[in-house]
Amino acid sequence: MRRLIACVVALAAIGPLASPAAASKLLDRNAHYESLKVDSSRVALVTYYAHGHTTHALLWDAKNALPPDAAHPKSQVKFHVNYAGGFGSVLGRGYWRHVARHNVCGRYTGPPLFGLVTACTAPDGTNWALQVWQRGLRDNGWRPKTSGQSAWELHVSHWSGPLPKLWFKADWIYAGARGGPYDHIYGTFTYRGTPVYGFGSTRAGAPTDSFGRLVYMDTLKPPWKKGYRQIGGWYRFNSFLTHRPHGDFCPGVYRSIAGVPSRPRPGRGLQYRITANGPGVTPIVAWRNYGPGYYVPGLQNLRPTKHARGPYRRRLDHRLNADQRQIDPVPTRPSSCYHTH
Question: What is the pTM of this model?
Answer without folding.
Answer: 0.90
